[in-house]
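for the writeup, i need someone to sanity check this before i put it in the appendix. the sequnce is what the collaborator sent (i think, or maybe the updated version? ugh). structure was predicted straight from it, no edits. if anything looks off just tell me and ill rerun, i have time this weekend
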Amino acid sequence: MTSTPTRPAPPVLLQAHGLQGALGGSDGRYEKFLGDLAGLYRDSTAYAAALAADAGDPVYWVESSTPEQAEGALTVGISVLEPGRIGDEFFMTRGHMHRRADRAELYYGVAGRGVILLESLTGESRALEINPGQAVHIPGHWVHRSVNVGHARLATLFCYPTDAGQDYTLIEEAGGMAQLVVRDGDGWATRPNPDHIGYRRG
């Protein structure tokens, strides 16, 4: 007896609107507000002042498309990060490593000027600038976060295996990432984070 083939998930047409910070055709969205980011920035006084003056708009958000959960499925989305600073640190995402640590991810610049900050559990660090038309291919086993070092909205397209998952606690438990992305004149630089105590090894 021949079994009936499982009907596949339908294809999805996606449209990136970088300056508007939207992904046409997406099926999911989450937002992070300044109040959600307590402890992310080292200058607690500057953070408290920014929070007191905050208008309540999201600092960053993600719109994504996950049409299936099957093995080999991909999640595609847009990550949008507003410009700004807390003290001398630029606005950034919380950052993560994948729960399935061997899973890779691709970021493609759509709008704005950003930095992808990457660190390994063995102590290596990279800070790669990403601009429209540039891509950062992140192999597995790298902690990563996006930082907006420009004066306009940063938008990046991303793609990763749907089963990758995200571990957001790794950075928090380590006292933050080992490197900070900070203002340096009219540009940016990295400097060591004195609060970083090292990543736990999974």
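The chain is about 5% helix and 40% strand. The domain at 16-192 is CATH 2.60.120.10 (Jelly Rolls).
thx in advance!!
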